[in-house]
Amino acid sequence: MKKSIILMTLSCILSVNSYAQVYANDRYIEMPTMDLYNPTLMRMAVQAARETAAQRRAYFERNHNDAIEAYRNKNWNLAIHYVNQALSTHFQNGQLYYIRGYANEQLGYLRDAKKDYKRGRKLGSYEAANALSSLKARQ
After folding, report:
1. d(Cα 31, Cα 14) in Å, to the nearest integer?
2. What is the pLDDT of residues 96-125, one digit of tens each?
3. In this structure, which long-range contacts are made by residues 34-42, counting pairs with CB atoms below 8 Å and at least 24 apart in sequence?
4. pLDDT tens sequence across 4-22
């Protein structure tokens, strides 16, 4: 996060009459680069970026927990829904790919299950690696 703000600031310093895009409250805001030199406006932009990141993290955590709960209750369609919502925040988690893969396997979507198990294994999920081996052995 800090790297992107520093890079954005440096690119703004190098440009004279251009606009910068600042991500705040789930949307981009275009600001003239001269406004970014204003310390107050820059602090506001950084604070907005922090708040947005915190909101995304909370949304991820909420959907992650709901996905685990749906998995435990064997509600496969709901588990897939919550995993998709959690992954839409761009936070990667091997356990979520395992849950979605297992739900897909239970619903009979073996190709999708295999893809999810492979992604989960790449992210270090032990369960996904075992499930992938088991699925391959059964096929």
Report:
1. 15
2. 999 999 999 999 999 999 999 999 999 999
3. 36/8, 36/9, 36/12, 37/12, 42/9
4. 666 666 565 555 445 555 5
Q: Report residue 113 CA to chain centroid gap.
A: 20
Q: In terms of DSSP H, where are the helices of the chain?
A: 2-14, 33-36, 39-72, 76-87, 94-107, 110-122, 126-138
Pairing verdict, β 19-24 and 27-32: antiparallel
Q: Which two tokens stand for residue 20?
A: 């910068």
For the purposes of burial, counting CB atoms within 10 Å of the CB of 111, is it exposed (0-12), middle (13-18) or buried (19 or more)? exposed
pTM of the model: 0.69
DSSP letter at 24? E
Q: Using CB atoms within 10 A of its CB, is residue 78 exposed (0-12), middle (13-18) or buried (19+)?
A: middle
Other beta carbons within 10 Å of 81: 17
Integer CA distances (angstroms), 19 to 2, 12, 24, 81, 114, in order:
20, 8, 15, 38, 45
CA distance readout (Å), 18 to 9, 31, 33: 12, 9, 6
